[in-house]
Amino acid sequence: MYIADGDNHRVQRFPPNSTTGTTVAGVTSSKTSALNNLDHLTSLLVDDDLNIYILDRHNERVILWPPNATQGIVLISSSLLKETQDILFLPNSTNQVYISDPKNSKIYVWTFNESNANYTISSVGSGSDSLNKQTGMALDPYGNLYVADTENNRIVMYCAGSASGTVIATGTSPSISKPTAVALDSNLNLYVVSKDSDTVIGLPRL
Fold this sequence. Notes:
Elements: E1 2-5, E2 10-13, E3 22-25, E4 43-46, E5 52-56, E6 61-65, E7 73-77, E8 86-89, E9 96-101, E10 106-111, E11 119-121, E12 123-124, E13 137-139, E14 145-149, E15 154-158, E16 164-170, E17 179-184, E18 190-194, E19 199-203
């Protein structure tokens, strides 16, 4: 298990059945912009080769940390990343990511080593509705993107290849109040972290 230990400015790795972690990125646990440090990271990805891709929020960058490295390699650098919360690879991609930016209520699709995002996602439905300070994201095996639309108290799904979302969960029973994270199990049941109600809600497969 890999943990984005944001306030300690490091990534911790916990072996199976262990309660003791090891720092594998953010060597000095100091918040600087040096390549061997991180500053309030918020999310990470780990690929099959154990490379770690880190959303290093206050350094406004995505940084790659290879296995056993003592410093990272910057893949994306932009002031747009200052308040970002989550990162996911696009389906079947190793160099394009979704990045959730709640400050601007947008999800960026970004290619590594590009100075600007390819495009943004924010629309919900066919009218003027849009995301509002969304946070966590998840993907299903079909490439559909699920988004915790935090300030709208709902979960929005973007079908693979679509830039317009559909509301799939909202309401008070169960209470979806300020959702911050979403996850799917192998049967595509949906799990939602609801911040205001201090609960994890399970929703059967649609």
